[in-house]
């Protein structure tokens, strides 16, 4: 089983509620740059929601072994093992790992659902596959 956040791209109105809720929950600052979910734009100007698909590329890049997959298929970062090298951030194909100068450990989506709850358009959902 793998637990992931999925998005109905066509329903997004780019309100950024999901980004702000995520950043506020984990950094206590509603700042989009600190969010583990990103709303960008497609070439036609419509919103594009970028979420962690739990692909594991971050774990493969982590030389410290600080990123492991839990029983629900979610990759988690160990604060004890992470050396804050940033390699996981560099290899993320979706640009949704966050490295802040104020923290010793990058942040990534843990499929907690805070963004799902914050979305007024029901764009986001947690799925298990």
Automatic annotation (TrEMBL):
Lineage, broadest ranks: Bacteria, Bacillati, Bacillota, Clostridia, Eubacteriales
Record domain 4Fe-4S ferredoxin-type: where: 2-31, 41-72, 73-97, 99-129
Key word Cell membrane present: no
Domain of life: Bacteria
Gene3D superfamilies reported in the protein's UniProt record: 3.30.70.20
Protein name per Swiss-Prot or TrEMBL: 4Fe-4S dicluster domain-containing protein
Family matches, as Pfam families: Fer4_10 (PF13237), Fer4_4 (PF12800)
Organism: Acetobacterium malicum
Record's keyword terms, sorted: 4Fe-4S, Iron, Iron-sulfur, Metal-binding
InterPro entries on file: 4Fe4S_Fe-S-bd, 4Fe4S_Fe_S_CS, RnfB_subfamily
């Amino acid at each position: 089983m793998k637990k992931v956040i999925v998005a109905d791209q066509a329903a997004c109105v780019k309100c950024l509620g999901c980004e702000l809720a995520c950043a506020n929950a984990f950094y206590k600052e509603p700042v989009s740059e600190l969010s583990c979910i990103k709303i960008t734009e497609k070439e036609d100007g419509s919103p594009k929601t970028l979420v962690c698909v739990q692909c594991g590329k971050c774990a493969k890049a982590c030389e410290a072994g600080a990123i492991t997959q839990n029983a629900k298929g979610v990759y988690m970062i160990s604060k004890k093992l992470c050396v804050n090298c940033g390699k996981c951030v560099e290899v993320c194909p979706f640009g949704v790992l966050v490295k802040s100068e104020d923290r010793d450990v990058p942040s990534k989506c843990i499929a907690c659902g805070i963004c799902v709850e914050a979305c007024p358009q029901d764009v986001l959902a947690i799925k298990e596959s």
